[in-house]
Design a protein that fits this description.
The chain contains seven helices and ten strands. The strands form three sheets. A four-stranded antiparallel sheet has the order 1-6-7-5. The chain is elongated, with a radius of gyration of 20 Å. It binds a DNA duplex (16 and 16 nucleotides) through loops.
Length: about 260
DNA sequence: ATCTATTCCTGGCTGC
DNA sequence: TGCAGCCAGGAATAGA
């Protein structure tokens, strides 16, 4: 499941190929991924050059000539593959003057849009977010910390895996009340998030199911997961068994001994 | 504002 | 081996 580090890895793998390339033809075959008239979208894209490529939260943003921004969200199983042969789950194919970009997505939770309106509604990018800014944003919110970290309007880019890993590293219970976190804990959480995200980017992200970058390479950060997907295994820090509960509808993994819920 | 439940989707599991 | 049923979850949405 692509979160910030995976999207960043895809971005980096596309940077050597895309900027400067011109879209010769675009084809769309999923009304779920592209929720507008595919022929109209193809016409709007034809002839445009990719000027720049950037990321905000989990969105990849293609800045095109003529002032258009194409946004891609990979959802759960989306992949952008460079010079790949379109397979059975290819939902969009962009033929360029040199090369081809294939958007592949089994479950079709991903989205391709011809603007960046959705990305602009989000909070600041989690990677590189200043500690003071994080503390300010947090101070303005109430509620449990895990759903808050997953809320893209609060901070953009955290997903289920890295939220669980960051909370473990900061030794904060996923159900802890955000407004009751002491300054030192907020600081620790911020530091844990930055460390986790940076380490995951450095190792090409986590390949849980079949995530790969644009060149088809898997990431390796999953071997560093301390809690995610490790229910019942001993905690790396204290040997207590990792627990799994459901929070906000998501599988949530934590160490019941290291991550204590402060009593109300 | 925050919460839960529901919806979207399908490969890969589990269990019989 | 076959198959039904369930699971995973990012984000939008509805309703409490």
């Amino acid at each position: 499941m692509p979160e910030l580090p995976e999207v960043e890895t895809v971005l980096r793998s596309l940077l050597p190929h895309l900027p400067g390339r011109t879209i010769v033809q675009a084809r769309f075959s999923s009304r779920l991924v592209l929720r507008e008239d595919p022929a109209r979208a193809a016409r709007a894209l034809r002839g445009r050059t990719v000027l720049a490529l950037r990321r905000h939260a989990k969105f990849l943003l293609f800045e095109l000539s003529g002032g258009m921004t194409l946004s891609v969200h990979l959802g759960m199983t989306g992949k952008l593959l460079w010079n790949a042969e379109p397979g059975p789950y290819a939902r969009a194919v962009f033929e360029l003057d040199q090369g081809r970009l294939v958007y592949d997505d089994v479950r079709q939770f991903g989205r391709i849009e011809l603007d960046c309106r959705r990305a602009e509604k989000l909070g600041p990018d989690a990677l590189g977010l200043a500690a003071e800014r994080f503390a300010e944003l947090l101070a303005a919110r109430r509620g449990r910390i895990k759903p808050l970290l997953l809320n893209q309007r609060f901070v953009g880019g955290m997903g289920n895996i890295y939220t669980d890993e960051a909370l473990f590293r900061a030794r904060i219970h996923p159900l802890a009340a955000a407004e009751r976190l002491k300054r030192a804990r907020v600081q620790r959480l911020h530091e844990a998030m930055q460390q986790i995200l940076a380490e995951a980017v450095a190792t090409g992200g986590s390949s849980i199911s079949d995530y790969v970058n644009a060149d088809g390479d898997a990431g390796s950060f999953q071997i560093n997961h301390q809690v995610y997907g490790r229910e019942g295994e001993p905690c790396a820090r204290c040997r207590a068994r990792i627990r799994r509960i459901v929070v906000a509808g998501r599988g949530t993994h934590f160490c019941p001994r290291c991550q204590r819920l402060p009593k109300a």
